[in-house]
Amino acid sequence: MNTLPQPIYPVVDSAQWVRRLGQAGARFIQLRVKDRPQAELLEEIRSARAIAEALGVCLVLNDYWQLALDEGISYIHLGQEDLDTADLAAIRRGGLKLGVSTHCPEELDRALSCAPDYVALGPIWETRLKKMAFGPQGTDKLTVWKKQVGETPVVAIGGITLERVRPCLDAGADCVSAVSAFTSHPDPEGQVKAWLAAAGC
């Protein structure tokens, strides 16, 4: 049976955020670094990996699967567009765990064909973080998809706040993920603790 390290899953853009949220108790964190020069990108990834290892955090690297292999990071997250160019055979040979973003039944089918370690469904609610081609899915969709995927963990993402953690988990999500709910909050460490409490940890 596939299991995730923790039912909360912050997404951050720097090693410093990995440190802050990891020290607060988060144990499953995605590093999503975009539009950085290669040298800066490598430095950020290496720093985040070292911090994660020291804190006992399972670090997930967004997009850069080859760098994950090269730098000893064991978990990656790919969007649908990333699947177009990713070498899934190399990813599996390297022993990487894989999470995949999904937004519709066709994308879910594609993700499941990759034998992922989790699928992320979103946006559950409206999100302002980035423009989405898909409207809010709602918690009812979580219930439907969880029944469809069976033991594959489902991560809910998109517009999730502290008050929405429990409804997502009760609807069938195995994990809830967010970016701004942590990094834009005046007390990010307090949010980690509050989300963990809401998730029953």
TrEMBL record:
The keyword rRNA processing does not apply. The keyword Metal-binding does not apply. SUPFAM superfamilies: Thiamin phosphate synthase. One of its GO terms (cellular component) is cytoplasm. It comes from Acetobacter peroxydans. This is Thiamine-phosphate synthase. GO terms for biological process: thiamine biosynthetic process. Keywords: Thiamine biosynthesis. CDD domains: TMP_TenI. The gene is thiE_1. One of its GO terms (molecular function) is thiamine-phosphate diphosphorylase activity. It comes from the Bacteria. Pathway: Cofactor biosynthesis; thiamine diphosphate biosynthesis. Residues 14-181 form the Thiamine phosphate synthase/TenI domain. Signal peptide: none annotated.
